[in-house]
Amino acid sequence: MVPMVLLSILALYAIIERLITLNKRTKVSQKWLNSLYNQVLTGKTEEAKLLCEQNHTAIAHVIQAGLENLPYGLSNMEKSMELAGQNEVYQLERNLSFLAAIAAVAPMLGFLGTVLGMIEAFRSMAQATTAVTPQLLAGGIYQAMITTAAGLVVGVLADTGYRYILTKVDKTAYKIEQAGGQLIEILQESHKMQQAPSRKS
To answer: What 3-state class would DSSP assign to 27?
Structure first.
């Protein structure tokens, strides 16, 4: 039961830590995005970079990486945002493999505890000098089954947390991709607007 308690504490820590990190790194308001897109559309790239620097979120970091490489062309900008996006998703997924390992190990550890408990219970019965009563057998089995229940509880907790956090990371990855694509479209539109007066002249 001692390892089970430690696993439950580690699972809770991993879940809470990831949820706090996701809340900080993925919360971007539409107002901030609209302000950023307006800066880019009007050619105020430096102001847009400043907005990204002040916003410590995954989307802001990805867009900032793209704007830093804007002078080298849209293709390079797109590649830099893709790499930055992969890095941000990797950072958001940190500790998830550890949580998945707890979800897999905890039930098996619980079953191991039950088997060891049953072995000890039957050993005690074999060495008993008096008649074995149903109460003695039931008491040993009861104590042994506690580890199975504890292992399943910890496993369900870890697996539920893992799947929930993974879903939130996937949604964030989609939002990053969507924001990057919209930024490319805005830059293309801005480029067309800048070329229009020269064509008329």
So the answer is: coil
